[in-house]
């Protein structure tokens, strides 16, 4: 009868992954929700990863996209409605870069609201792809691995999102520069 417990070396291996990637995953989660929820989901991500570690093949997969995939799925499950997620994103999307220039901050907040509204109109799979690229800074290959779709699908989703955002007047991404590039 197979054991439900991970092998003893799994905890050590996953501990190393936590040391390497926890901060990056937490920042990604915190941009999409409040810090307490992000910390809870981060913990749940690594508990889930520990349980699934025996089926993870380090020779075929990178741990980072796999962990982001778990975190994204847990986050998606956390939200009971997309409206709640959009409100949280809009509250956390504007960094404190404009302490001395309140007018600039207001412009950025307005631009973020435009982008958030457009993201809200996108299918969840497209929105997750955009946020994994923009906020988690994953490569196309890593996003494909994290979401379980082919790289071509990732490219298509990002192209669709860019096209939609280009059509919105005044849409800029304060975290990554103009969207009209």
Describe this structure in words.
This protein is mainly α and 181 residues long. The protein has two domains: 8-78, Rna Polymerase Sigma Factor, Chain: A (Orthogonal Bundle); 97-178, Arc Repressor Mutant, subunit A. It has helices at 8-32, 35-52, 63-78, 82-92, 102-121, 124-134, 140-147, 151-166; strands at residues 172-173, 177-178. Strands 1-2 form a two-stranded antiparallel ribbon. β1 (172-173) and β2 (177-178) form a beta hairpin. It is globular, with a radius of gyration of 18 Å. The termini are far apart.
So what's the overall shape?
globular
The count of strands amounts to 2
Main β-sheet, spatial strand arrangement: 1-2
Q: At the fourth CATH level, what is the homologous superfamily of the largest domain?
A: Winged helix-like DNA-binding domain superfamily/Winged helix DNA-binding domain
Outline the biggest β-sheet: 2 strands, antiparallel
**Radius of gyration, in angstroms, nearest whole number:** 18 Å
Number of domains: 2
Low-confidence regions: 173-181
Q: SSE string, helix = H, strand = E?
A: HHHHHHHHEE
| Helicity level | 55-70%
Please describe the topology of this protein:
Layout: H1 8-32, H2 35-52, H3 63-78, H4 82-92, H5 102-121, H6 124-134, H7 140-147, H8 151-166, E1 172-173, E2 177-178
Antiparallel strand pairs: 1-2
Helix pairs in contact: 1-2, 1-3, 2-3, 3-7, 4-5, 6-8, 7-8
Features of the shown structure:
181 residues, mainly alpha, Arc Repressor Mutant, subunit A, two-stranded antiparallel sheet, 2 strands, RNA polymerase sigma factor
Short note summarizing the structure:
The chain has 181 residues and is mostly helical. It is built from eight helices and two strands. A hairpin with a 3-residue loop joins strand 1 (172-173) and strand 2 (177-178).
């Amino acid at each position: 009868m197979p054991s439900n417990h991970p092998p003893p070396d799994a905890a050590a291996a996953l501990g190393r992954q936590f040391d390497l990637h926890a901060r990056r995953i937490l920042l990604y989660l915190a941009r999409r929700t409040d810090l307490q929820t992000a910390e809870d989901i981060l913990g749940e991500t690594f508990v889930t990863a520990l349980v699934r570690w025996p089926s993870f093949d380090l020779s075929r997969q990178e741990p980072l996209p796999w962990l982001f995939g778990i975190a994204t799925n847990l986050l998606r499950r956390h939200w009971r409605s997309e409206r709640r997620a959009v409100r949280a994103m809009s509250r956390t999307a504007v960094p404190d870069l404009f302490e001395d220039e309140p007018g600039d901050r207001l412009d950025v907040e307005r631009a973020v609201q435009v982008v958030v509204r457009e993201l809200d109109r996108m299918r969840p799979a497209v929105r997750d792809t955009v946020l994994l690229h923009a906020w988690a800074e994953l490569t196309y290959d890593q996003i494909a691995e994290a979401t379980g779709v082919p790289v071509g699908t990732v490219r298509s989703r990002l192209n669709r999102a860019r096209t939609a955002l280009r059509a919105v007047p005044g849409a800029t991404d304060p975290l990554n520069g103009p969207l009209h590039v």
